Amino acid sequence: MHRRLHGRGALFDVEPAGLVPRIVGLRPYQHRVLPLEHPGELPFVVLTGARGLGKSAVLGELRDAYKGHTPVALVDCAEPQFAGPPPERPAESWSPVAQALLAVAEQLAEPVTGAGRITFPRLMSGLVAVAAGGWGDAEAERIRREVERILLLNESGSWISGFAGRWAGKVAAKVVAAATGTGPLVSGAIEATLESIAEGFASRRHQKASVWYRTYPNAGGHAQRGLILLSGHFRAGGTSREHAERYLVRALLADLTEAYAGVLPRMQRLGRPLVLVDNVQTGPGPGLLEAVLRDRAEGVADQVAFVAGLRGDGRRLLRGGVRRELAGVARRAEWTPDPAVPSSRALLVALPPLTPDDTLHLVGAPAAPRLPQAVHRLTGGNPLGVELLAEAAAQHPELAGSPADLLTADVRPVEDGPAAPAYLLLLDRLVPADRLDELTVLAAAHDHDSACALAAALLPDDFGPADVRALQNRLAQEGLPAVPGQFVGDPFVRTLLLLRLHLRDADHSGWRTAHETLIAYYTEDRQHGPDGTDGTDGTARFRLHHQLALGRTGPAVAHLRDTFPVVDTRAWLRTLRFIAAAPYFHAHDAEGRDFTGHGDRRAAVALGRTDAQQRVPDGVDGVLHLRIRRLLHAVWLLGDPLVLPDPKVGDRLRFELEQLSNLRPAGNALLWRASRNWPSAALAGRPPTADGEDGEDSGDGDDDEGDAGDDERSGVA
After folding, report:
1. Of 306, 339, 355, 476, which has the maximum CB count within 10 A?
2. Which residues pair with 325 in a beta bridge?
3. Rounded to an integer, what is the distance from CA 16 to the centroid of its chain?
4. Distance separating alpha carbons of residues 118 and 164, to the nearest angstrom
5. Does residue 46 contact residue 322 with C-beta atoms inside 8 Å?
């Protein structure tokens, strides 16, 4: 396996065999057979997940693993070639599905170990019939180019050098003559194609292929009429075109089945052919997927191993699909389709994030020993994020002590290309490019209404509430988690967007305006906070969160100090964690203003080094005030995914929470457990966790206090 493809052994393993080797019947990178799983009908495997989880990397690895050993093809449905017809070709004779079938067949035709090229006479005939529908006023040269590419699908690798190419040229000449003559254009082109197949090939296999379209509906047993009907249905568009495309897919699979028929082919061809379809949710993907699944549901058998990558969870496209976690298919895929549900022929396998161990292997052993843990916390195990940050650390080892600096450093990707800041390279892959500017602003929001407030302040007038809601739905469809309390639910993506918002203007004006807008929004009287909490506390903590993002620590310290003696301990801890989850991308001076230096004063404040210079407000408990101030900065620093955790600050956090636990007998257990859980989680590269989530027993007689707060990834911290 490729050295950077970690955490996907359930798909690739040899001993015991992973999912794909079991359905292909071959060991990866080897020409050695394995027992076939599901020897009758096999599942259409669909790898699901959000952007950056490695679906494309897995499909590319599968292509490399089986190329040359069994027929294999990889198409990316998001490529420009599937977006629209070539300039000279009319739309009525072109579709993304037909283009994808041509691209797949061209790759599957390549010879493999022990066997020659596969020919595709059925598919070739159908594609010529489709193309002929657009030759009404075409030049002879254009017709020749189009038809020769299609006809080369029948190149068999004959020992007569150049035979197939010369034969294709002759067929093209016949088709051009028929298409530019006085007779019916489509029927003339189809007749010339069928005649040429009969003349060029004497084998029984190709003769069978030449009459395969006799079974096309209403063809009356005549192959030529069947192809004419196919061409007409294709040109008609709509459901008629879908019907024709389904027959083209069936033609491809029938040609593959024929190539494996008979004793000699079975001895020469080991395993099953493999078709890989990336971004199956777009372009030709849904049409290909539906055609295969419907035919299999109706008993039209094939033995082609399909593996696709789908952005999102696939619930809209494959509502009846069988769902499994990756670990659940490592040894055997427990898959049984429902005869009445075509989409149950799909086996949807969710790709999980990488584990901390996987991240450690990818990042390696940099100069900063805590970097792998910090990278895993920052990325949440997103493979693309882990790999790019590992590359940034390799190219800039002097920056390995700061994840924030790695994100802003120029990185030249492994696959070559111009160098660019790592966070921009990541955003280019992780969010919809056409909505990057809008998401950059709305990432600071917590729900639909606060997002609308930001849109009104910072986005064009034509981007209104309906557009905000549509963008929310799009993020959900693409697999980003919907998290209460955050407009962009994925913490890693949100961090990248907020970093872009901060750096987009040299004076950080957009950043400041966004947070000032939300401060004003949450200052207004509201009955409930965006997460359904009581309006007074809910809006206060959201307001304080955004004030802290601008470096204004005073209001947060005052609120936490004044509410500590009277508010439920669980709610108080939750509020502390939420406020302290404010982003910190830039140093602030003592008055809370941005400045252009790169200092981070949070550690100094947390460790008490600035206590002597701090003026305590009149009439308040000075000891409690300074303790809360130190505690806030400690949680703010240790919870920051862009900073390596500081063990000294972790010790201070433990001490401050212990001391607070002595002041609240009713909440003593919660505060004491938080003093253990929070520092250990931060130093292990995890977000500060809720009480008891580290596996410690939380039932010590204080169950009335509940837990110490929700995980910040749930949107409340």
Report:
1. 306
2. 350
3. 28
4. 13
5. no
* pLDDT band (50, 70, 90) for residue 677: very high
Q: In 382-421, where does DSSP find H-type helix?
A: 383-395, 403-408
Which tokens belong to 62?
Answer: 């599968």
Is 274 a residue whose pLDDT tops 60? yes
Q: How confident is the model over 475-489, as a mean pLDDT?
A: 93
Q: Is 356 exposed, middle or buried (0-12, 13-18, 19+ CB in 10 A)?
A: middle
Alpha-carbon distance of 409 to 423, in angstroms, equals 8
Q: Kindly tell me if the per-residue pLDDT of 572 is higher than 90.
A: yes
Which among 551, 546, 552, 494 is positioned nearest to 520, based on CA atoms?
546
Spatial CA neighbour of 251 closest among 290, 203, 302, 204:
302
Q: Could you tell me if 266 and 260 are in contact, meaning their C-beta atoms sit under 8 angstroms apart?
A: yes
Q: Is the dihedral of CA 324, 325, 328, 331 positive or negative?
A: positive
Residue 694 is predicted with a pLDDT of 42
What are the tokens at 377?
């916390």
Q: What is the dihedral of CA 622, 628, 633, 638, to 10 degrees?
A: 150
Instruction: Give pLDDT tens digits for 155-164.
Output: 665 433 454 5
Contact 280, 46 (CB under 8 A): yes
Alpha-carbon dihedral sign for residues 289, 292, 297, 302: negative
User: Tokens 């639909």 map to which residue?
Assistant: 448
Q: Would you call the peptide bond into 16 cis, given omega within 30 degrees of 0 as the criterion?
A: yes
The 3-class SS string of 630-686 reads HHHHHHHHHCCCCCCCCHHHHHHHHHHHHHHHHHCHHHHHHHHHHHHHHHHHHHCCC
Range name among 205-219, 317-331, 403-417 with the lowest pLDDT average = 205-219
Three-class SS of residue 11?
A: helix
Continuous segment of H or E residues that includes residue 44: strand 44-49
Structure tokens given for 553: 């620590």
Express each pLDDT in 84-117 by its tens digit: 999 888 999 999 999 999 999 999 999 888 787 8
- Note the pLDDT of residue 527: 46
> In the prediction, which pLDDT does 322 show?
95
pTM score: 0.88
410-413's contacts with Cβ under 8 Å and 24+ in sequence apart are: 413/388
- Residue by residue, DSSP assigns 286-323 as HHHHHHHHHHHHTT-----EEEEEEEB--TTT-TT-EE
Question: In this structure, what DSSP letter does residue 617 have?
Answer: P
Q: Which long-range contacts (CB under 8 A, 24 or more apart) does 507-513 make?
A: 508/586, 508/594, 510/441, 510/458, 511/585, 512/550, 512/594, 513/457, 513/458
Please, are residues 691 and 670 in contact by the beta-carbon 8 Å criterion?
yes
Q: What are phi and psi of 294, to 5 degrees?
A: -65, -45
Tell me the Ramachandran region of residue 695: left when phi exceeds 0, alpha when psi lies from -120 to 50, beta otherwise: left
Token pair 């292990």: residue: 684
**Rounded CA Rg of the chain:** 31
Contact 509, 458 (CB under 8 A): no
3-state SS class at 187: helix
Quote the DSSP letter at residue 351: P
Bridge partner residues of 308 (DSSP): 46, 277
Rounded Cα distance, 21 and 33, in Å: 9
